[in-house]
Amino acid sequence: MPNNIKREVAEAKTFFKPHVPRYSAVIAAHAPELLPAFHKGVKNGEVQIPQLRVLGTKYFRFTPNEQNQHHAALRRASAILRKNGVGSAVKYLETKKRPVISRRFATAAALTLAAGIAGVSALKTTLPLFVKPESIASPANPEVLKRRLKEQSSVFRLNKDVNSFLDNLRRTGELTTADDVSLVVHDLTNNRLLLSINPDQPRRAASLIKPFIMLAAYHKLSEGSTGYPKLDSDIEKMIVKSDNDASRRVLRFVGGPVEATRIVATYGFKQTRVAEYIPHNGQAYENKTSASDLNQLLRALHNSALVTPSYSQAMLGHLDRYNTSRLADLPEAHDVDLAGKTGYIHGTQGEATQVLMKSGSTRYNFVLVLEGPHPKEVKYDRWEWWKRTNKVIRDTFRFVHNKVASGT
Cα(229)–Cα(200) distance, rounded to whole angstroms? Predict the structure, then answer.
C-alpha cells in the first residue's frame, strides 16, 4: 500500500472510530450488498463515487436536482480526501453552504470509509444491532447527538471485544469448530440491545424450555382454568430446582406440548417449540428455543408484560430463586442478583438470566446457549464437553459483565 494511502487510512481510523456504528446503520437497513465494493474502494484509497451515487438516489432519497448539485461537490471531496485526508474532505462536505443535503452526503462518504476501515466481517457482526437510516440524522441538540454517538460507540466496542474474546477461545481450543454460539446481552435499564450473535437460531432447549412451560401455565390460569393443589409448588420446583418430574405435571396441566407451543406463540416467541415432555433423566432433544426468545421473555417479565402484571411478577419471582446457576459463585456475582434459568443436556449448555447490580441501578439480560453436535449423530465424551462448555459460559459472563459494569 502506498505511503499516502497508509497515512489516509491511519487518519481515517482516528477520525471515524467513534462514528462507525452510526454510519453502519445505513448498511444494516439497506445496503449490505455494497460492503465488498466499499471495502475494495477504501483499500485502493479512493471514495467510490458510483456507489455513493447509488446511496444518494436509493438510500438517502435525493431528488434528481439534489443529486446533480452534489456530483461536483462529491468529486471535489474525493480529491481533497486523497490529497489532504479525511478530516478536510468531511469539513468540505459539511460547509454551511450545503447544511442539510451534504450532511447526508457526508454520512455516505463516511460510511464508505468506515466500512473499509472497520472491515467487512466486523461490520457484518455489528449490523443487526443498529437502527434504520431515518434515525441517524443529527438531532438539533448537539448534546443528544454526542450522547447517542457515545452509546453506539460503546456498543461497537463491546461487540468487537466479545467477538475477539470468542475468537481467542476458539484459537485455544476452549471452543471448537463444532460448537455453535448464540449470545444476547440486553441493557434493561436503557432498553438497548448491546450484543447479538446468532440470536434467532433455534437451539435444543434442554431445561431452558421450562420458563415457557411456566408462561403457558399462568396463561391457562388467566383463562380460568383451575389449577391442581400443588401447581404453584411444581412451578417452583420446575424453575428453582429444575425438577423434570414437576415439569411434566405442569405441562399436563397446560394441555400437553402442542397446546403449550400454541400459547407461547401467541406471545410472539417465534423460535420456541415445546415438542415433548422432559423425562426423569432430562434427555429431551426435540424442544427448541432461541437466545432471542429467551431475551424477549426476560424483557417482557421485567416490564410486567406477560399474561398480567401480577402473574409476570410471580414468574419473575420463581426465576429469582433459581439455584442451578453456574454463575452464582463467581467473584463478579457477589454484587449482583440473578433471576433466570439454566439448561443442560449432552450437546447443549445454556444460561439465561437477568443481572441486577446491587451497587447501582444497572440491570441487563445475559443469554448464552452453546450447542454441539447431536450426540446421536456424533459420539464424544459427555463429561469433557460439559466441563469445557461450562467454563466457557462462566468465562464469557465474567468478560461481558466486567465490560458492562465499566461502561465499555
Answer: 37
